[in-house]
Amino acid sequence: MKKTYIRYFKKLCSDQHGVGLLEITAVLFFLAVVTIPLINFFISGNRFTAQARHEVAALNLAQEILEETKSVPENQIGVALGGSASTITLAGTKTTDGLYNGDKIATTGGTGSGQIRTITGYAGSTRVATITTNWTTSPDSTTSYIVFEKSDSTPYTYSISVTNGTNNLKTVTVLVNYEAKGISKSVSLTGEIIKR
Question: Which of 41, 154, 183, 194 has its CA 20 to 30 A from that of 75?
Fold first, then answer.
């Protein structure tokens, strides 16, 4: 009797000439079990890649600004003599009209620190620089500044601070703000420059 069942089972298996619904269902279930985690993995990977791209771009911008400010001559770093809503009076000795036109000016300490504007006019005789957009907080005689070259081709906002250190050094800190997945983040770089 046992041999009869075995022969019947062999005959049943050998008589199949196609794929049954049960086999197709099993394969589809297996593919779903394997594919769904892979799709989630790729979506998460894309999110992390986009976040890393923003972080690297912000870090590169901070490095670029830090290197630029480290190479700025001493007469482009100072404490303002005063200012108004759309101007700042520089303490430098440069008297050439239009010398700083198109350059950036960052307030790095004192009243109104953390602002960056583009200089549109510079009167050498009075050392007054006119800026594009009015200051949020007007500078005064406590406001330190730095004048540097930087294009506007960046989607990130940034600020620069310069403090006097020891041994004839100044400490420059660049803070770049960016947004990743709707969350505000920032990167910061610090370097030192020798007073020249």
Answer: 154
